[in-house]
Specification:
single chain, mainly alpha, 2 strands, about 45% helix, elongated
Length: about 80
């Protein structure tokens, strides 16, 4: 698929934001379905290291699934 088709599909499906899609597609014109997986991983790594406000919602592995859930320790009444 072409660069414009890939960009439109990636943004519509949420594989990355405009900034990461533009950075990923630099210098390339042909894309396959595997590039969506690579873009999603690139977006996750890119946002983790560049967007410090994203640190509040850092992804964690909890019971075999990725989540942003924060666990609370129950207090004693």
């Amino acid at each position: 698929m072409t660069k414009s088709e890939f960009t439109a599909t990636a943004l519509k499906c949420g594989y990355g934001c405009q900034k990461t899609v533009e950075k990923y597609t630099e210098g390339r014109e042909e894309f396959t379905e595997d590039d969506f997986i690579r873009l999603f991983r690139f977006h996750t790594e890119f946002m983790e290291f560049t967007d410090r406000s994203n640190m509040k919602q850092k992804w964690r592995n909890y019971e075999g699934a990725l989540t942003t859930k924060r666990l609370m320790n129950p207090g004693k009444d």
